[in-house]
Every structure is written in structure tokens, then in C-alpha cells.
Design brief:
Layout: E1 6-10, E2 19-22, H1 25-30, E3 36-41, E4 44-54, E5 67-68, E6 71-72, H2 81-93, H3 98-105, E7 123-130, H4 143-155, E8 158-159, H5 160-167, H6 171-179, E9 183-190, H7 210-225, E10 229-235, H8 241-254, E11 258-262, H9 269-280, E12 284-287, H10 293-304, E13 310-313, E14 325-331, H11 348-358, E15 362-367, H12 372-379, E16 384-388, E17 399-404, H13 405-412, H14 420-431, E18 435-439, E19 448-451, E20 468-470, E21 475-477, E22 484-486, E23 499-502, H15 506-516, E24 522-525, H16 527-530, H17 533-544, E25 550-553, E26 566-571, H18 575-578, H19 585-599, E27 608-613, H20 619-625, H21 629-642, E28 650-658, H22 661-678, E29 684-697, E30 700-709, H23 712-728, E31 736-740
Parallel strand pairs: 2-5, 10-15, 10-16, 11-13, 11-14, 12-13, 14-15, 17-27, 18-25, 18-26, 24-25, 26-27
Antiparallel strand pairs: 1-2, 1-4, 3-4, 3-6, 7-8, 7-9, 19-23, 20-21, 21-22, 28-30, 28-31, 29-30
The structure holds adenosine-5'-diphosphate and zinc ion.
Length: about 750
């Protein structure tokens, strides 16, 4: 006799508890963990995930407490046991709701919010083929019908649309052939392939250099053992890390296992994933957020079915349902984009390590500028450190030089955007037929707008930031909430006309360079231009083909691209980055300059890097120019130790946000009180509340508390206890973001 079971489900919302529903007899037979279940929740209906199937109702619940599930979506669970377990770890470690994690682990469109909305699903096409054996003898066939038949005879099975065009017949012709049982029509899933336009790229297989071979051998030995192992590959830019990644991936495949590679930026994937496709063929699946929903669903399905055994993707690809995972590569492991900036706040690099542990795989973290945490872990032998200290072909590293903008200011009596030295270098590079990259971490035309009559700056109405002038679109824009206004005719406060655009953005640099060097061919790359993927890829392609002399852009230009003819990189200013109120400001700046220096001189000619700054003696700049990672690491480590920052303490931040300032402030104070109450033994240090560095964002006020502790366990106990007390006292925890190991505290 069929017995009724119960499903414990997690919902894809910011809700920490799980819920229990009654299953029908039929659902009870088919329901499995990891499958989706449509359930009533409050006044709505949601697509939930089954996290457990129970034969009996837990004692804490009675039959009258619970509702019936509406429908079971999957017979074959969307979330396999490994991914479900990984999701549980993430939810637990990062203190975020399990349902949110599962949702983030699946391709988009799997858990529609509105009931009745469409789920992501395979793309279906009708296919036509001839029935065998063909008996046409006594049939009267028209011309069109005969054309369709002979086309099918030549081509075998064909997509209906293709058949109609090729044979130039109408759909009615095919329908009549179907009625006569001459053809058969079937519905099949077709694959939406995001890389189909990259076919034909070839991938050279290099003979490894001696250092490369030594690194690879160490990895292969560990992989042969079939047990968990972790490597930190510290290799200068251009040292051939990518070739190591690909060889290690081949090794995983040859051991019958799968491989995964995480990359930080969408911008890096098109070129690279096509190279992977060239090397590994159809086994490659690509996961990133700029793919269309359908493409993502298909790639995910190919992985799930075991058709694709190599995955490349950004952050969320760490949850790809690959079978028998043998290797995870995390390229540019120090990148902050591995951390998700909304709930669930997870760091894909750290999830990758845990996943490798759980699945007895090898994990390779690679970088020219490892994060302080990873290098520290390597120095404590948690990871095996392997080095590639030299560039391939013994190409020299670019020389980096600091330009002291204080003296430039003294000489000219006013601030200048470009020092003479940088201008000279740009001219020089142009005359030699070589290319340059000019960086500035600021989009738009100006950084803020000032009235020279009354001193008013123009602020975003929703955020605590000034608006930026975008000249080409003739608008002023907030870079945080995208609030847009028409260009001002006068000061909004005193109405006078002395509106002045202060500071320069990428757009203005581009314009200045055009004016200064009329023959210079300039293009700009930043988030404004990359919004259009095609324009962005085209600019990169033109630059690569030598049709552009100078690329102006934000830091996204600093990474990954390999342009052999670039011999000059100019950084217009690093000072904004250095001054950020964040304990990682120095580390970020060091990484940026090192990455940038890696862009210059990738070919046969040496490169140079010029960095303009008002802080020429800052240690991050000095060590970056000397290309001395270890010296920087030592000095930065001392700073972290003296000020009790990671990796010496575990850190958590609590951000309280909401539209009502009074409420945000009082909630923050209440949380502080609860944290102190939970921290009687003083095992944690609590800081704040204070207004967050961005004190208002998208119409919401923001206050921040920081918790530090030498013991991660105590930190969590204190935070969890305080949050629970606050919730019991009526605080709405949806207005509190708890971030464990935040990568940025801004
Ligand atoms: P990284 O990722 O460390 O910055 P890349 O993998 O991009 O470095 O390698 C730099 C350049 O050297 C690339 O053009 C790559 O094709 C080339 N390369 C890598 N390994 C070899 C090798 N063993 N022999 C010759 N060229 C190589
Ligand atoms: Zn805004």
C-alpha cells in the first residue's frame, strides 16, 4: 500500500528556516532530494527544493499544521547529492539561507517567482525523416511532394524549417506527406551553443619549458593519487600558467575524471573559452551570466548528463553538476569578483577548495599576485606552493616607474591630467608603431560636478555619491544606482552658470588624447562600452589586429588579454584606489599595478609602465614597481597583524540598511547591544555601528558593524546569538546583511 511521505523543502528566498509539506501517494514514490516541488507559502506559491524526504512527520509538527505540496516538478532531481551537500556547507559557513544557495547553484530560470511562469527548458525543434521502407508505387504525388522526398533522400533527417527552405515547399506539403505515412515528424531538443561562432580557432600545444614541466609533474603526481590536494601556482604574468591549466585538465580527463576552470571576468571568457573548445572540442561547456538563459540551460544540461566534462565559467560555475570531478582551476584567485556581492555571499575560490576536498579532487589556485590569505595558507603548508618566476622566452618584465604628480603640480601651478613624461611616452610609442594602454579607474567624463559660484556639488538623490558627467550621452549618471539626469544648464542651488566638471573619467581621457594626438587611433573600454558585448569584443579585436593604437579604459583592461605589440601602459592615477577606506586598499593597488605591468611587453620588445601618483612613497607602489611580491607580502602581513585584520583574525561585517535613517540607526544600536551581550567572555572585538563608507545607496541608509575574532567559531556563535535575539525582539533580519569573510568592507 502506498504510504504518504513528507518533504522538507528550502525556498529560494531570504528565509532561513525550512518547511515541511505533505506529499500525495504518487509524489511519495517519486520525490527525491534535490528535486523541485511547487508548494503554497503564505498567500503565494513558490518553487521550492526538496532537501529531505521523511517517512514520518517530525514530532514538532502535527498533520493539521502542514499543507499539501502542489506538484512535483522533477523525477530526475535538478540538484544532485554532491551539489546539495556543497550547498549545505555554503549555507552553513556563510550563514545564508539554503534555498538561496541552491537557487544560485542552478542556472537562472529554474525557480520562477510567479507561479505559472515558464521554467527554463530545452529548445525543441521538429525534425522530418522518410519512413523506411518507402513505398511510393501507387501514390499520386505532386511536384512539391516529390521535391521534399528527394531532398530528404539526399540529406537524411532534417529540421523542418531547413527542409522547407531547401526544398522550397510549404508546411502543408509536409503535413500531407505525414498523413500518407511517407514521412515521420519528431520533436527533438537542439543545443544552443554559445561558442558556435568560435569554431575554427586552433590551439597550439606548446612544448613545456623546464619550469612548466616541473610544476606540471608535481600536480600530475598528486592527481594520480586520487586524493585531495591543493596547489598555489604563483607565476608572473606571461609565465605560461594557462598552458599548465590546460595540461592539468587533460590529465584529469585521461584519468577518467572531469575538470573545471573558474575565471573572474566575463570579459576574459570569450577568447579563452574558444581556445579551450579548440583543445578539448565538444567536451567543453561554458557557464557565465552574459549567456542567454537558454544557452545556460543547455550547457548545464550537457554537464549534468555527462556530455561535457570540462567546464569553464565565472563564480557560480563552481556549482556545476560535473560528474567525477578531478580538478578545479581557479585562475586569478585573488580577484574580488569571486565573491558574490549579494546574498548568498559566498566566495567561489573558497567553495572550490571545499568542493575539491569533498570530491577528492585537486585544486589549483593561480595568480601573479596571490591574495594575502592564499599565500599565507601556502606558507603554512595548507597548499603546495609552485612557482613560475620567469616569463616564457625569458622576455623581460616591463620596467615600472612612478611619476610624482606633486612635482608636476609645482611646475605647472595647477593639476594636470597627463604629465609631460607620460605624453612623451605615448608619442614615442606611436612613432615606433607600437601600442599603448591608458588606465583610469573611473568611467564617464568627470568625477564630480561643482558650482564654482556657490560650491554646490551635484549629488545622486538616492545615494551618497556625486553624479558623473557622461558627455557622449549628454547625461549625468550615478554609477551606483544608474540614476540619470539631463545635463545641467545652471547650478541647481544658486542658478548661476558656473558649472564645472572636476576630475576626469575615461571618456574625457579619450577626448584629450584625440586632441593632443590627431593621428592617434583611440578606443575606449569600460563598463559603459562593455554593456554592448559586440562593441567590446570588436574593440579588443581591432586593437589586437593593430587597427587601434591606444586603448583607454578602466581596470578591466588590466587583466588577461595578451597583446604582443603593447609596449606602454600608463596609469593616470592610482590615488583613488589607495585612499579607499578598506583594509585591502594596498593589496588591491599592488595587484592592479602588477597586472597592468603584465600587459606591457608581452611580445619581443620590452615594455614600460608609468604610474602617476601623489603618493610616490607608498609601499604598495614601491614593491609593485620593483616587482617584488614577497617584499610586499611581508610588509602587508605586518600591517594586517598590527591592525588585526585577516588572515590573523576572522572577520564578519553586519550591514544594516533601510529607507528610514532613525530605524537603521536604532536597529544598529540594538544589534551592538545584543553582540555585546553575546560576547561576555570578550572573545570577539566589535566595532561600530558607524555609517558605512557609502552611507546611502539606492535610497537606503546604511550602517555597519564589524566583528573580529581569532576564533572563527566564537565569531559565529556571537553573531548568530545576537541576530537571533534581535529577531526575537522583532527586528526584520532582511534589513541586515551578515557577511562572513567580506572581501571589501565598503
Ligand atoms: P600567464 O597565464 O602566466 O600570464 P600565458 O599562459 O598567457 O601566461 O603565456 C604567455 C604566452 O606564452 C602565451 O602567448 C602562450 O601561448 C605562450 N606559451 C606558454 N607556454 C609556452 C611554451 N611552453 N612554449 C612557448 N610558448 C608558450
Ligand atoms: Zn545613485
Amino acid at each position: 500500500m502506498a504510504k504518504t511521505s513528507y518533504a522538507e523543502v528550502a525556498v529560494p528566498l531570504h528565509v532561513f528556516q525550512t518547511f515541511t509539506y505533505r506529499l500525495s501517494a504518487e509524489q511519495s514514490i517519486e520525490a527525491k532530494r534535490g528535486a523541485r516541488l511547487i508548494v503554497p507559502l503564505g498567500r503565494t506559491v513558490v518553487t521550492a527544493y526538496i532537501v529531505d524526504v521523511l517517512d514520518e512527520l517530525p514530532q514538532s509538527l502535527s498533520e493539521t499544521d502542514i499543507k499539501d505540496a502542489q506538484a512535483l516538478v522533477d523525477i530526475d532531481p535538478v540538484c544532485n547529492p554532491e551539489i546539495l551537500e556543497l550547498a549545505r556547507w555554503v549555507a552553513d559557513y556563510y550563514a545564508c539561507p539554503l534555498g538561496e544557495v541552491i537557487k544560485a547553484a542552478l542556472p537562472p530560470g529554474m525557480s520562477p517567482k510567479k507561479s505559472g511562469a515558464a521554467f527554463a527548458k530545452p529548445k525543441l525543434r521538429r525534425f522530418v525523416r522518410l519512413r523506411q521502407p518507402l513505398e511510393l508505387n501507387d501514390e499520386k504525388l505532386g511536384d512539391a511532394q516529390r521535391r521534399a522526398i528527394s531532398t530528404l533522400e539526399n540529406n537524411g533527417s532534417m529540421a523542418l524549417q531547413t527542409l522547407l527552405i531547401t526544398a522550397s515547399v510549404s508546411a502543408a506539403t509536409i503535413t500531407s506527406l505525414e498523413k500518407k505515412a511517407i514521412v515521420e515528424i519528431s520533436v527533438e531538443a537542439v543545443r544552443r551553443d554559445p561558442l558556435s561562432d568560435g569554431l575554427g580557432i586552433t590551439s597550439e600545444v606548446h612544448t613545456l619549458t623546464v619550469p612548466q614541466a616541473s610544476v606540471l609533474t608535481q600536480m600530475e603526481q598528486q592527481m594520480n593519487s586520487g586524493a585531495y590536494s591543493a596547489f598555489l601556482l604563483h607565476g608572473v604574468t606571461g609565465s605560461g600558467k594557462t598552458e599548465i591549466y590546460m595540461r592539468a585538465m587533460s590529465k584529469a580527463l585521461s584519468l577518467g575524471r572531469s575538470a573545471m576552470m573558474l575565471v573572474p571576468e566575463i570579459a576574459l571568457t570569450p577568447v579563452f573559452s574558444r581556445r579551450l573548445r579548440a583543445r578539448f572540442g565538444d567536451q567543453v561547456a561554458i557557464f557565465h551570466s552574459s549567456l542567454q538563459k537558454g544557452e545556460r540551460f543547455d550547457e548545464w544540461t550537457r554537464v549534468k548528463n555527462g556530455d561535457a566534462r570540462v567546464v569553464i565559467g565565472t563564480r557560480s560555475a563552481v556549482f556545476a553538476p560535473v560528474k567525477n570531478l578531478g580538478l578545479i582551476v581557479v585562475d586569478e584567485e585573488h580577484e574580488s569578483s569571486y565573491r558574490q556581492q549579494e546574498s548568498p555571499y559566498y566566495n567561489a575560490r573558497d567553495v572550490a577548495i571545499v568542493r575539491a576536498q569533498k570530491e577528492s579532487a585537486t585544486v589549483v589556485l593561480g595568480s601573479a599576485t596571490p591574495s594575502l590569505e592564499s599565500f599565507h595558507n601556502a606558507s603554512k603548508s595548507k597548499y603546495t606552493l609552485v612557482n613560475l618566476p620567469e616569463r616564457i622566452g625569458a622576455r623581460p618584465m616591463a620596467t615600472a616607474k612612478i611619476i610624482d604628480m606633486r612635482t608636476v603640480f609645482e611646475r605647472h601651478g595647477k593639476p594636470r591630467v597627463f604629465s609631460d613624461e607620460l605624453l612623451e611616452a605615448i608619442r614615442d610609442t606611436l612613432e615606433r608603431g607600437e601600442q599603448s594602454i591608458i588606465l583610469l579607474n573611473r568611467r564617464g567624463y568627470s568625477s564630480f560636478i561643482l558650482c564654482r559660484s556657490c560650491g554646490e556639488t551635484v549629488q545622486c538623490p538616492n545615494c551618497d555619491v556625486t553624479l558623473t558627467y557622461h558627455r557622449s550621452e549628454r547625461v549625468i549618471v550615478c554609477h551606483y544606482c544608474n540614476h540619470r539626469e539631463a545635463v545641467l544648464r545652471g547650478c541647481p542651488s544658486c542658478r548661476k552658470k558656473y558649472i564645472y566638471y572636476v576630475g576626469e573619467g575615461t571618456e574625457q581621457l579619450e577626448e584629450m588624447l584625440r586632441l593632443l594626438f590627431p593621428s592617434l587611433r583611440v578606443a575606449r573600454i569600460d563598463r559603459d562600452t562593455t554593456a554592448r558585448r559586440k562593441v567590446f569584443e570588436q574593440s579588443l579585436a581591432d586593437f589586437s589586429a593593430g587597427k587601434i593604437d591606444t586603448l583607454v579604459g578602466t581596470q578591466m583592461l588590466a587583466k588577461g588579454h595578451d597583446f604582443p605589440n603593447v609596449t606602454l601602459v600608463g596609469v593616470v592615477s592610482v590615488d583613488v584606489g589607495l585612499a579607499l577606506p578598506d583594509f585591502r586598499a594596498a593589496e588591491r593597488t599592488f595587484q592592479l599595478i602588477t597586472q597592468v605591468a603584465g600587459r606591457a611587453g608581452r611580445g619581443d620588445r620590452p615594455g614600460r609602465v608609468l604610474i602617476q601618483t601623489y603618493h610616490p612613497y607608498h609601499y604598495a607602489l614601491r614593491h609593485a614597481c620593483a616587482q617584488d611580491y614577497e617584499a610586499f607580502y611581508e610588509e602587508e602581513l605586518r600591517y594586517r597583524q598590527n591592525h588585526s585584520y585577516p588572515p590573523f583574525v576572522a572577520l564578519a561585517s553586519l550591514l544594516i540598511h533601510g529607507p528610514d535613517l532613525g530605524r537603521v540607526r536604532s536597529d544598529s544600536l540594538e544589534l551592538r547591544k545584543q553582540l555585546d551581550a553575546a560576547n561576555q567572555e570578550r572573545k570577539c572585538r566589535v566595532l561600530g555601528p558607524a555609517p558605512a563608507p557609502l552611507s546611502r545607496l539606492k535610497g537606503e541608509h546604511r550602517f555597519q558593524l564589524l566583528i573580529k575574532s581569532r576564533s572563527r567559531k566564537h565569531l559565529r556563535e556571537v553573531a548568530d546569538a545576537a541576530l537571533k535575539k534581535a529577531a526575537d525582539g522583532g527586528m526584520n533580519l532582511r534589513t541586515v546583511n551578515l557577511e562572513i569573510d567580506p572581501v571589501s568592507i565598503m
